[in-house]
Every structure is written in structure tokens, then in C-alpha cells.
Amino acid sequence: MSLRLLAWLKRCRLLVPMLLVIGAGSVYGQDLPVEGGTELQRYRIRIGDKLNVRFPYQPEYSLETVQVRPDGSIGLLQIGDLSAAGRTVKELQTSIEKAYRDHLLDPAVTVNITEFVPPRVYIGGQVGKPGSYDLRSGKTLIQMIFLAGGFTNLANRKMVLHARPQGNGEMVYTNCNVMAMLSKPIRQDLALQDGDYIFVPDSKLSKGTRVIEVFRSFIPSFGIGLRY
């Protein structure tokens, strides 16, 4: 075997583990929290996520793929529905093991997330293209407004409402003066999170309480559009 061939094989041996590590952060083309990292440990399962549930010692109870339904639950063999949305992987594992104690002796379960729902932000009101957008495309308030086509001529740029769900049916509201943000030498922007709402009111609306009332009229129930 030539020295050139040996050198090429050595490079291949180094390249394969690197490709595996790079690929581990993506499933179905989506960026995922790195397995074993603190980000994945903190991640809370959302509606639409796909899970793999394995029973190492009772494989007949394993589920290769189970999707979190709109009501936040998953279906388990012999148990039925179990709440999954809003829990971490570890919390869900503990909950499944507890649910099976009446059916199995010392049940052991492993749960893995195989497909993540992309994080989204919802923007409405006086913007060019209202709708829901992938958070990874615009991670701040100003970026998301630009992504949504910018302000219309009727927009109140000094009172943009940011609403963040708290997971208990309530929201925290912040009025943002985007014109002031843009005029500062060092731009001050608001970092967005999954599930955030942005509402750009009409320029005729000048009171914060009235802006919130109009925003709420777009969402008759806080449960609509929320993944908690």
C-alpha cells in the first residue's frame, strides 16, 4: 500500500467523526440543541415535537415515533394519554416511569426528541406582511419588523407592543419606542423568544392600555396560538 493511500485513509478516519458531530445538531434540516448540553436539558417539549420513547427491558412498550398532539399530550401503550408539552425530557421520563409502575416492575424509560418544531414569533398590525415567522430568521424586535415588510404608513412607530406568554394564560406586555431605539448611537433592541407576539398599532392609538385592548381583540383566547 502506497504512502499516499495511507495518508488519505488516515484523513478519512478523522473526517468521519467530525461529520457525525456536525450532523448531530440537525434533524430534518432544523437546528437542534446539542445532545447532552445544558440547552437541551432546559428545553421544554412543545406541541408538534416528535419523540422516541424506549423501554430497554420491555421493548414491546417502546414507541419509535410519537408526536405531541395539539392538546399537549402523547399516547402511550396500555397507559393512554400523558401530558408532555411544557416538560423537559427528564421530567417526561420521570412521569412515564411513574405512570407505568402499576403495570411494570421498576420501569426504565429513555426519551429522545427526534424532531423539533421551529421556534416562532407572531407579528400583526401595521406591518407589510403580518403573520408567524421563524425566530431564527429574526431574533430581535427590529429584525422581525423588517422581516415582516417594515412599517406601513399608518403605523405608530413609537408604541410597538411586545407580548410574552408566561405559560399560565397570562402575558407580560412591553411598549417599545422603535424610533427611539433606531436613533440611539448604540442600537438598543429587544431579544425575542419562542412564542412572542409583536403588535404594531395604528398611529391613531396613543394610549398603552388601548393598544393592549386592540391586541387582545386579535386573540379572543390566550390559548389560541400558544404552545404552552
Search tags:
228 residues, alpha+beta, wza like fold, Outer membrane lipoprotein wza fold like, 2 domains, five-stranded mixed sheet, three-stranded antiparallel sheet, disordered C terminus
Helix content: 25-40%
What distance lies between the first and last C-alpha atoms, to the nearest angstrom? 60 Å
Predict the CATH topology of the largest domain.
Outer membrane lipoprotein wza fold like
List the uncertain runs: 5-31, 220-228
Indicate the overall shape: elongated
- Please compute the radius of gyration using only Cα atoms: 23 Å
Element string (H = helix, E = strand): HEEHEEEEHEEEHEEHEH
Strand content: 15-25%
Q: Would you identify the CATH architecture of the largest domain?
A: Roll
Mean pLDDT: 79
Annotation, overall tally of beta strands: 12
Biggest β-sheet description? 5 strands, mixed
Strands in their spatial order, largest beta sheet = 9-8-12-10-11
Tally of alpha and pi helices? 6
Assigned CATH class of the largest domain: Alpha Beta
What's the domain count?
Answer: 2
CATH superfamily name of the largest domain?
Answer: Outer membrane lipoprotein wza domain like
Q: What is the structural class?
A: alpha+beta
